[in-house]
């Protein structure tokens, strides 16, 4: 009888522990930028969104296991995906961008109405993910600045007004790959 009582207690504990554990899958949406300034435009303004950023190689000696980019180096030819969602939360644009000699990428989108972006704001609708690194010594993905799940784009005040549309430049935080193997320093 004691064994049966013990078994019932064990099972009920497991059920309660399981019930407290959230088994729902996380949303597919990446985090939204919280540090972004508001874009000072009318919702009906025609805009061209441009997203820029850098991709780096994280240093083994100073940053292993952290989000530090101290002593990191740019990666030429790294690829990122840039996605923006429309007002109904559907992918409205997807581009693969490649970095230059300085690890910099620049990705322009088509002209659209400001409020055609998800949440009526491109900073809520656009995100960037790491794809690949051509550097065989530095091609392991990191989630620094959300490079795996989707780095949010933020507005840092760059607006350029033209005759037909306004260009809004959004920035991704620095994204990084890391070496697949780092020696243990002693």
TrEMBL record:
GO terms for cellular component: cell periphery. This is Non-classical arabinogalactan protein 31. It comes from Carex littledalei. Residues 1-19 form the signal peptide. Keywords: Signal. Pfam families: Pollen_Ole_e_1. Coiled coil: none annotated. It comes from the Eukaryota.
């Amino acid at each position: 009888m004691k064994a049966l009582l013990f078994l019932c207690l064990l099972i009920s504990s497991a059920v309660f522990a399981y019930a407290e554990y959230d088994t729902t899958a996380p949303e597919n949406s990446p985090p939204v930028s919280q540090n972004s300034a508001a874009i000072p435009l009318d919702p009906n303004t025609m805009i061209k969104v441009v997203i820029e950023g850098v991709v780096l190689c994280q240093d083994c000696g100073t940053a292993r296991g952290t989000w530090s980019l101290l002593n990191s180096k740019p990666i030429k030819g790294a690829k990122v995906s840039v996605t923006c969602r429309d007002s109904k939360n559907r992918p409205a644009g997807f581009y693969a961008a490649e970095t230059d000699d300085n690890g910099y990428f620049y990705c322009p989108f088509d002209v659209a109405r400001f409020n055609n972006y998800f949440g009526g704001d491109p900073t809520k609708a656009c995100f960037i993910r790491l794809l690949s690194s051509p550097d065989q010594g530095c091609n392991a993905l990191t989630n620094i600045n959300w490079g795996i799940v989707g780095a949010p784009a933020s507005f840092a005040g760059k607006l350029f007004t033209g005759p037909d549309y306004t260009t809004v430049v959004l920035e991704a935080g620095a994204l990084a790959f890391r070496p697949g193997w780092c020696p243990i320093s002693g």
